[in-house]
């Protein structure tokens, strides 16, 4: 059971109040991009055992999308941040580093 | 003109707590930038209520102004006043980007009242929300799910609870609340 805090409502709710929206911070590659970039954008996803960044939606609540940093192994949630971030804020990175020194996820660490 | 009716015709269940469909009450959904004083002050003035903070509801007489999301409010008021209030909102919010729509007959409202512990217990059995008196005090407004459907709950100044859901699931919500508030269903949580 995940316990997530919606950064918009400030509500700490359990998993069934939210809905997972897949991997966070995907970079869109559309027309004019190379085939390899487009394939990566469409199909290549992280599947880590450990630190993971995801998108979630507060579906039975304010309805807003947000980001969550969590551990897929322990279900520990390091923090949540708004959908207006194109990368995890420093504060969230620090929280992850405190618990999982040396973590990396795609280009972030 | 046909006569507007509430979804369940004022259904009532008497159990450990009393679950009753509220008489028809006008509802207006408001969207806009709550951080913009041009929007929030105009809404507060027309509603005659202080703008509720995050997760709160303001109450005065029959009128309620609840915080739905960072850009949405719900205004409940006597049904006959809706048209006049929409007119006043349109006037007060002229030039401000906003949306104000009547949703009176698109939502269902229930009142759960009676012994405070039984009321909180009836709701706590159905929603993943902390209904303890310390966490959910009068004036708190929370959207979540009630069993399998989305719903909003708030605590009235007198300690009873209001429940709002979509009209299409009114019967489901009423039956779920009725079972949860059955007189032999107490668990003694609060």
Automatic annotation (TrEMBL), chain A:
Q: What Pfam families does its record include?
A: SoxD (PF04267)
Record InterPro entries: SoxD, SoxD_sf
Instruction: Recall the GO molecular function terms of this protein's record.
Output: sarcosine oxidase activity
Top-level division of the source organism's lineage: Bacteria
- Chain coiled-coil ranges: none
According to its UniProt entry, one GO biological process term is:
tetrahydrofolate metabolic process
User: How is this protein named in the record?
Assistant: Sarcosine oxidase subunit delta
From TrEMBL, chain B:
Xref: Pfam families:
SoxG
> What InterPro entries would the database entry show?
SoxG (IPR007375), TrmE/GcvT-like (IPR027266)
This chain belongs to the protein called Sarcosine oxidase subunit gamma
Q: What organism does the UniProt record list as the source? A: Pseudooceanicola nanhaiensis
